[in-house]
Each structure stands twice: as C-alpha cells, then as structure tokens.
Amino acid sequence: MSPHPQDDLFAPAPGFAAPAPAYVPPSSGLLKGLNPEQHAAVTLGQEPALILAGAGSGKTRVLTTRIAWLMSQGLVTPGGVMAVTFTNKAAKEMVTRLSAMLPVNVRGMWIGTFHGLCNRFLRAHWKLAGLPQGFQILDASDTVSAIKRVIKAMKLDEERYVPKQVGWFIAGAKEDGLRPKDIEARDEQSRVQVQIYQAYEDQCQREGVVDFAELMLRTYELLRDNAALREHYQHRFQYLLVDEFQDTNKLQYAWLKMFAPPGRGQGVFAVGDDDQSIYAFRGARVGNMSDFEREYRVKRVVKLEQNYRSFGNILDAANELISRNSHRLGKNLRTEAGPGEPVRVNESASDFAEAQWLLEEAQALHRQGLARQEIAILYRSNAQSRVLESALFNAGVPYRVYGGLRFFERAEVKHALAYLRLIENANDDTSFLRVVNFPARGIGARTIELLQDAARISGRSLYQSVSAVAGKGGSNLAGFVNLVESMRNLTQGLTLREIIEQIIETSGLAEFYRNDKDGAERLENLAELVNAAEAFVTQEGFGKDAVALPVDELAPGAIAEGLPRAVAAAAVTPDAETGEIMSPLAAFLTHASLEAGDNQAQAGQDAIQLMTVHSAKGLEFDAVFITGLEEGLFPHENSMSDADGLEEERRLMYVAITRARQRLYLSFSQTRMLHGQTRYNVKSRFLEELPESALKWLTPRNQGFGSGFAKEYQSAWERGAGLKSVVGAGRVEKPAYGAASATPSFAAAPVPKSMKQAAAEKVGAEHGGLRVGKGVFHTKFGEGVLMTLEGSGADARAQVNFGRHGMKWLALSVAKLTPID
DNA sequence: TCAATAGTTATTTTT
DNA sequence: TAACTATTGA
Q1: Residue nearest to nucleotide B11 (CA to C1')
Q2: How far is the CA of A439 from the C1' of B4 (A)?
Q3: Which residues of A carry a binding-site annotation?
Q4: pLDDT single digits (tens) A435-444
Q5: In a 10 Å sphere around its CB, with 0-12 CB exposed, 13-18 middle and 19+ buried, how is residue A422 labelled?
Q6: Model confidence at A777, in pLDDT bands (50, 70, 90)?
Q7: How confident is the model at residue A721 (pLDDT cuts 50, 70, 90)?
Q8: CA A795, CA A568: separation in Å to the nearest integer?
Q9: Mean pLDDT over all residues of chain A?
Q10: Catalytic: A316?
Q11: How distant is C1' of B15 from CA of A248, in Å?
Q12: Domain named UvrD-like helicase C-terminal: which ranges (predicted)?
C-alpha cells in the first residue's frame, strides 16, 4: 500500500553553486570563497571572539581556515595554538583539513578532544599531578564497576546506592569542580554518597587509574594550584579555539579559563550554536556562551547564518520551530538555494505501518538514484529502531544502526585489554577482577571475597594480597599470578602486535572462544584488536602524547617568568635501561580508553542509516526521515513537565530538521507498541509549530482515529512477529576496526616534504651523525631506522623503527644510539 | 560454577 | 515486549 502516488521525481543533487560573491575577499588563497561573515571570523585579531555558527554554516571550515590563516600570516607558530573539540572525529577532521591547507607540523599542535588534551597534559606533568607515570584511564563501564566495588567494600545497600547513580553523582561533582571535602551533605543519602566518592577516589589513587571526569579535574586543579605552570601555558598558547562551545560544562569552561583567562589578551575563539544545545542532561551549560561573551568582554559576536546545506523549505521549518524558544542568542538561517521540495508529513495507523511506509518511501528514493547512505531515519529513542529494523530486514534492504557497542567496549576485547593492563600495572584491581576467573580457572566468589578482605586490611592491591589467601582458592590465585608474571616475561622485547597475540593465546582467551560454539565472531574481534594495535603503531607519532612535552617548546620568557627547571625536567622519565619514553603498550591502552572505536557505517557499503537524533548531530544527509513525532515520545514525556526540558526537546527537533539537505519527511503514528503495550498517541506539538507553507501532508490532515486500524495493526504485528527472532541478522557487516576503518594515519596526510625535511635537517645536525632516514643501532633493540629527531640537549628524542621490535620513542640522553651506514 | 528462572525496568550519552 | 540483573537450584 503506497500511501500516495509518487508525485514528483527526485531531482539529483542540484549542487549548491555558491552565489556570485557580492564581497570580494583579499587575494589570499586560503580565504577564497569565504562569505563576509566567515571571512570576518577567520581574520579576527588576537581578541576574544564568540562565533554563533548555525547548522550547515561552514563552521569547521572557519575553524580550520582560521588556524591556517594565523600561521600563514606568521601570527602564531604551531606550538602556540590549541584547538579543542568534543569528539575524536571532529579533532581528526580538523587535523586532516588543516594539513591539506598548510605545511604544518601537526605533531606539535595541541589539537584534540578535551580529554585527549588533558591526557597529554597529565602525561607530561604526571608527577606534579600526583599520578603514577603509567596511569591508565577508566572508561564508563570500568568506572561503574569500580564504584560497585567500593559500595560492596563499604557494605552498603546497592539498592539504595545504585552504582550507576552514584557514578552520576561523582561525575556531576567533579564536573562542578568539587572534591568530597567541598560537598556539604544535607541528608543521609548524599552524606553517604560523599563517603563513597571519597573511598572511590582513594581506590583510584591506589590503583593508579583515573576516570574521564578526573582527567579534566586534575588538569584544572594542577593549573589552578601551580602558578608557574599556569604561567607557562598561558604564555605558550596565544590562540585557543573551542568547538561546540554550547556543549561545554562548568568544569570545561573553568579549565579553559586556566589556559586563557579573560583579560590576558590571548585570542580565544569560541564557536557554538545555542540552538543545538542538546546535552544539558549531561551537564552542558549553554549559559557558558553568554558568560563567555560577558566575562571576556567580547567586542563582536559573529553570526554565521548563511546555510550551505539545506533548501529553503527545510530552513523555514527549522527557523519557525526554534523561534518558539526563549532566551536564544538569536539567529536565523538563510539560503540562496531556493525553496526546494516541501517538507512531507505522513500519518500512519501504527508503528508497524509507519515502518512499512518509510521502507517504501526510502526504496522509492533509492530507485530514483539516491544512494542508501544518503538516507537517514532518525528517532528519539533507541527502542524505536526495532520495528524499523524489522521492516528493513524483511524487505532485504541493507541498513546500519548507529550506537551499539563500540569496538573497544566489546567483552572479549575488554578481557584482552585487562590482561594487557595487568602486565603494565598489576595493581589495577578493575582489570584483575575482570579476568581473574575468565576463562574459568576455579576462582570463585568466595575466594575473591577473602582476597578482597585481605587486600582491604593491608591496604594493598588484590594482586599483592594473593599470598594472604590460603587453601584451594589460594593456590588457584597463585596460579593466576604466575600466569600474569609469565605473560610479562614472555612479552619482554616483543612488538606490540606480538605482545597482544601472545597474551590472547597464553591467557586462554583464544582457547576459550575456539571451544565456544559461537565464539567465532569474538575470535575475529580479537584478531581485529591485533590489527588495531598494528595500525596504531604504524601511525607516525603514535606516542605523541607522551613525548610532545612542553620542555623544548618553552618560550624563553617562560623560564624567566619562573617556571622551575624541575617542572620541565619532571616531564620526561625515560626507561633507565633502554631510554624508551613510553612503551607502545602503555600508549595503546590509553588510546583504547580514550577512543572507544568507531561504530559508523562502513565505507563502501551502501546502507540506510538508522540513528537517534542525538547521534545525528553533526551529520547531514540528502534525505532525512524523522519518525515517531508523537507527544510523549518526541517531545519525550520525561522532558515535557518543565519549560527547559521542552525547549531542549525543541532544539533536538531543530537539530533533526537541519540534518536534511534536500528532502525531509516527518512521520507519526496513531498507535505504538511501547513496553509491551499498545499506546495511543497524539501527534507531536512540534508539527503544529512548523509553517504550513513549507509542509505537504501526504495523509489527510487531522485524520481522526479511523476505520479498523486496530485490525490492520494486529495482523501486521502477527506477520512481523514471526520474524522478530532474526532481527539484526540483516545488519550490514560490522566495520573492521583496524584495517578498513582505521583512522587515516597522520603518515598518510600530505605533510609537505619541505617543512618536514627542513625540521629534520635542522636538528639532525645536532646529534652526532644521526640522520633521519638512516640506520641506527641500539644496544637492546638492535638495528633500526631513524624516523624522527626532535628537541635538543637533555630533551632530545628520537623515533626509531626497529622492525621486529616496532616503533619506539627514545630519549637520546639515555638511549645509546649509534649511526650505521 | 553454571544455567535456569524470576523480577525489574524501560530518553538522549561526544569522553 | 525484551533485555538486563539477581537469585536460586543442581
């Protein structure tokens, strides 16, 4: 049943030919094609700036062009720029685009996510931050299980103190810059939560691990409390750029102010869109934008309102909708692309019928020449994907669902990583507990309890307490310790790849999954882990976070201004024997927790994209379907009670609408299966908030509850029900992590030779015959090829490819490298 | 130590 | 409905 005849043919992408510019920018090639607002933003001087960047207004281009422009004008060197993003993807994109524009030394630049930059900072100043040199990072699930252990150890009721919620509380406190001592507990509940927070903090410190929020807070605190260090970084970074400023939380803004306080005269460039703030529930404060404008005395707010993405009707809908929100900074998107097609609205009798309609419409678009990956189906909550998947699967249409488990979050991968972490740091109790009895080796809950008691009493780690447990459990535990010890011995001197292969075998994981009837996929993932490690090591500059230290970049003035030499010296502590700066394994483990891996559509596979509206942020598609536009769902019932919640839902809708380039469909259903019950829904208020002139109803407007839809619904579900068991089997093959979807390596980026060579030649002369590209000999690692030389004097370091020993970073003051011919 | 069973809960989630 | 957790029984 096609709900309507195909009334007009889908026009292939017309291409948004840029209109003849009324304004002719200066001759510089970099600035060519920028509109006046973009041009103004890019060429602002060294002053605080707030850029209101609407959806599709060329924000990333402005950001990268500004950095390139600053450098090309000689206003700043790579070392003087910091650019912060929220996602690894955004950071990577910036680096890629930048290196395409300019011959830049990407390694020296501080471009990364908030957490990535904090990691880099703390790796350099671990001693001052009170961390062990090889500290590891807990991901979200590690954090919850660590908290769970604390709650158990304190013998508290897990019903009353739910680990996840306590985790929320702790993260929330940290994001407000609060330590346990800073929180005044008003009631029993929060008093105990503070105690848990304190105990958790002690535990993390003991184990040498930090969670995501801790990365931010430690960095903030160290800068706050160490004037010399703060001075150094403020002096160093002359230009700072922050992407997605509307998503920053309180701590992130405070963090920024440590690097660049108002009035210090640095060029702080904050880019954001208050209308796209959809993470308030996670602590994001849109208010940071107006605070920034006020505190930094921003002279001119630049608004980027010219949209290069969507046709007029789509923008009209977006503008009209968002105008209903109050407290906006004020912005209206415009386009020169013409009205385009109307926004189509469809009503269905049931969620099943909706899925069926969607399927047919999407197929029609595809037949008219639209690639499947240019079609996105958006929904408010994940649960809604089921019916859609079912329909697509039955029709044999390739699709991809965003937002499942990511690569490094898969159980088998986490198991392997836990073994690796134990090799690096045996006191990591989280990792210990994860694998002490996996694969099963006769260590039960009782034994673990005894061990935990012993550890608690002596204040030592589980690993260190093993000898305290006697009996059968004790001997099994001793066996586990022996296993870890032997893994550490066996992996000495191996490449990262070999280390991982070795532990996958010795740990018994491979054996376990080989015997498991559906362990094949898990084995594949473990193989993929090996590939990921290989790809990681091959990337030029893999250990950059450990070695890109401030020492060699100290502006002469900074030392004069009092940065103690000791601070600088504390930065690098190479291995005493080999001179190695950071082991590839340690670097890889950090990478694994900071970047959970992709779960994005595989390139080359043409599949329809399914995702929540949240995960669609930042993406764009030729055709977009927004589904489930019903009161209670979108806007979600949990957000409808207060005005702020409703406004955030409206912004969410705004984000959804502005994803579409050419075609936008809005869809809702009279009934929907929710929590096992059929719910009768009213269409979303957001539909009423759109301009009638931009819409085209495919079904009669205000159609009442019609004839016998329930019957149709019933039979439809019965047809669908038999196929539920196979839902998901039709998903497109999962992306390969290492090989196929590994990030484009920095090595592959076109870093022009001239600059690289010049840099190499410059330092090359200083290091007694060592030349980049030539052979070197190391007493332990043997022969290798010198890849990079940088720094000078005591801080000089080299990156060497030792073939079977892999790529390594070495401190020349320690490592004995001799040139060979 | 595990597998079966009962009970519970149900937005969004860049790091 | 279905997915996840916690407990129980073999």
Answers
A1: A381
A2: 21
A3: 53-60
A4: 988 888 888 8
A5: buried
A6: confident
A7: very low
A8: 10
A9: 82
A10: no
A11: 12
A12: 312-618
A517 exposure class (CB count in 10 Å sphere: 0-12, 13-18, 19+) = exposed
* Residue A59 a catalytic site member: yes
What would the two tokens of residue A176 be? Answer: 């407000």
User: Which nucleotides of strand B lie within 7 A of protein CB?
Assistant: 1-2, 10-15
**Nearest nt (C1') to A390 (CA)?**
C1
Question: Quick one: pLDDT at residue A85?
Answer: 97
Q: What is the structure's pLDDT at A757?
A: 31
What's the Rg (C-alpha) of chain A? 28
Active site residue A552: no
Alpha-carbon distance A85 to A248, whole Å? 10
Catalytic residue (choose from A659, A672, A685, A734): A659
Q: How many Å apart are A195 CA and C8 C1'?
A: 33
Residue A150 CA to residue A203 CA, distance in Å, equals 8
The amino acid at residue A12 is: P
**DSSP states of A80-135 as a string?**
GEEEEESSHHHHHHHHHHHHHHS---GGGSEEEEHHHHHHHHHHHSTTTTT--TT-
Catalytic entry in A193, A203, A252, A276 = A276
Find which nucleotide's C1' atom is closest to A383's CA.
B10
Point out the catalytic residue in the list A37, A214, A244, A293.
A244
Query: Does the pLDDT of residue A650 top 90, yes or no?
Result: yes
Sequence-distant (6+) residues with CB within 8 A of A215 are A115, A118, A119, A122, A137
Does the annotation count A60 as an active-site position?
A: yes
| A88-92 own/partner pairs: CB under 8 Å, 24+ apart | A88/A113, A88/A116, A88/A594, A88/A595, A89/A618, A90/A60, A90/A243, A90/A244, A90/A618, A91/A116, A92/A743, A92/A744
pLDDT value at A611 more than 80 = yes
Nearest to A302 by CA among A62, A60, A84: A62
A91 nearest nt, CA–C1': B14
Find the Å distance, CA of residue A633 to C1' of nucleotide B11: 9
Is there contact between A675 and strand C, defined as CB under 7 Å from any strand atom?
yes
Question: What is the arrangement of strands in the sheet containing A49-53, beginning at the earlier edge strand?
Answer: A110-113, A81-85, A239-242, A267-272, A49-53, A301-304
Strands A817-820, A267-272: parallel, antiparallel or unpaired by DSSP?
A: unpaired
CA–CA distance, A422 with A765 (Å, rounded to integer): 41
Give the pLDDT score at A456: 86
Binned at pLDDT 50, 70 and 90, residue A818 comes out as: confident
Token pair for A187: 């009631």
Contact between the CB of A783 and strand C at under 7 Å:
no
| Reported confidence tier of residue A536, pLDDT bands at 50, 70, 90 | confident
Q: How far, in Å, CA of A509 to CA of A750, rounded?
A: 40
φ, ψ dihedrals at A334, nearest 5°: -135, 155
- pTM recorded for the entire structure: 0.83
* pLDDT tens-digit series, residues A180-239: 999 988 888 888 899 999 999 999 999 899 999 999 999 999 999 999 999 999 999 999
What is the structure's pLDDT at A379?
A: 97
Query: Which nucleotides of chain C are near protein (any atom < 7 Å from a CB)?
Result: 1-3, 6
Q: Which of A433, A508, A423, A417 is nearest to A465 (CA)?
A: A433
Q: Is the pLDDT of residue A728 over 70?
A: no
Taking phi over 0 as left and psi of -120 to 50 as alpha, with beta for the rest, A324 belongs to alpha
Residues of A annotated as binding site for ATP? 53-60
> Which residues in chain A, range 154-183, keep a C-beta under 7 Å from any nucleic strand C atom?
158
Name A240's bridge partners: A82, A268
pLDDT at position A129: 94
